[in-house]
Amino acid sequence: MKKRILVTGGTGFIGSHTVVELQESGYDVVIIDNLSNSNADTVDNIEKITGIRPDFEQVDCLDFAAVEKVFAKYKIEGIIHFAASKAVGESVQKPLKYYRNNIVSLINLLELMPKYNVKGLIFSSSCTVYGQPDKLPVTEEAPIKKAESPYGNTKQINEEIIHDTIASGSPIKAILLRYFNPIGAHPTGLIGELPNGVPQNILPYLTQTAIGIRKELSVFGDDYPTPDGSCIRDYIYVVDLAKAHVCAMNRILDNKQLEPVEVFNLGTGQGLSVLELINKFETATGVKVPHKIAGRRAGDIVQVWADPTKANKVLGWKADTTIEDTLRSAWNWQVKLRERGIQ
Ligand code: WQD
Fold first, then answer.
1. pLDDT digits (tens, 9 = 90+) for 238-286
2. How many CB atoms lie within 10 A of CB 144?
3. How far is the CA of 203 from the centre of ligand 1 (A)?
4. Which end of the chain, N or C, is less surrounded by CB atoms within 10 Å?
5. Which of ligand 1's atoms lies nearest the C-alpha of 201?
């Protein structure tokens, strides 16, 4: 009998790639998503990739009764919780939307899990919890810094809610995965990142510029204390990231966890500057990216990259796709979107 995993936000960017990897590893999946920032045709595209249609319920995680119906309908063994609002800038304008969506959703799941005997939870956290780390690369032991935005704060609060709930005796196991900067798309070009309106993250802005939707990419600052003056991040291929969720779920369901809450950094361990990223994209794809140096963006971290040793050793996982292949996958996705008349 296949084990069934509930994936909240499973039609979103990281969620959809994770559903594919779960199915390809022999899990059954039920997705819940309110489609506030994604499309139902992602379910069709997942089926095209894997040959298996995941169950899909259009449900908002804030709707306790509707979520409970899903728990009652399916025998769920584990949950991967992606569903969340994720625009940093918008969270400053609409903090209550972010606190309600991101926190109440988690509370609903945590209340339902023991009642329906669901053992494991994987939570989508972020390197944003480290702020600007004092030491690089950043390990899981680095101190949590005061959040720069309500969005970042919801990730920190949710980590605490999980710790407190388990400390109170809830019979749950949890793994908190702190992502660095996920980019790229499935090699088929059938699923990827589809931002609403003008992209805030660099890769979709870059590929939209390369294809001519945007005039030029602004490089936010070239006067930082880094080798070329632009900010440094750890860009991780979304398919590698998705695979880490399967390793984490296996660990929980196989009872391999040593502590009831475990935390892992998911990154490549390599830092890349904005200017290096543009350069690598141009070399890997042969496509030019018109860009200009612009002023610094408020709130930007200067440099951050992961020490992924713990995930490498304990989860037996490694991000091993090259940055060139990753950037080519992002470009392939952008080209396919145009062919499909979407952008
Ligand atoms: C990357 C780099 C920008 C756009 C995001 C989330 C954050 C966390 C991690 C989830 C920075 C530069 C960007 C542009 C640019 N994720 N840039 N021109 O800031 O690392 O944060 O990922 O929890 O919450 O917001 O990612 O893609 O916005 O920026 O020069 O048009 O690209 O300054 O150095 P960031 P990003």
1. 999 999 999 999 999 999 999 999 999 999 999 999 999 999 999 999 9
2. 12
3. 9
4. N
5. 27
CA gap 235, 184 in Å, rounded = 9
Query: In the chain, which residue ranges form alpha helices assigned H by DSSP?
Result: 13-24, 41-50, 64-73, 88-93, 95-99, 105-115, 150-167, 202-210, 238-253, 274-285, 309-310, 323-339
| Dihedral sign of CA atoms 266, 267, 269, 273 in order | negative
Burial class (CB in 10 A: 0-12, 13-18, 19+), 201: middle
pTM: 0.98
> Measured between alpha carbons, how far is residue 194 from residues 59, 69, 177 in Å?
20, 29, 22
Mutational pocket test of ligand 1: of 193, 233, 238, the residue with most ligand atoms within 8 Å of the beta carbon: 233
Q: Which residue has the tokens 């980019």?
A: 183
Please provide the DSSP assignment of 31-87 as one string: EEE--SSS-THHHHHHHHHHS-PPEEEE--TT-HHHHHHHHHHS---EEEE------
Residues with CB under 6 A from ligand 1: 88, 126-128, 181, 200-202, 205, 217-220, 231, 233, 274, 297, 300
Question: Cβ-count burial of 92 within 10 angstroms (0-12 exposed, 13-18 middle, 19+ buried)?
Answer: middle
Q: Whose CA is nearest to atom 7 of ligand 1?
A: 128
CB 294 within 8 A of CB 249: no
For residue 69, CA distances in Å to 105, 109, 139, 175 come to 15, 12, 39, 25
Please tell me which residue in 27, 98, 151, 237 is annotated as part of the active site: 151
The residue among 152, 182, 141 whose CA lies nearest residue 267 is 182
pLDDT in tens, 88-130: 999 999 999 999 999 999 999 999 999 999 999 999 999 999 9
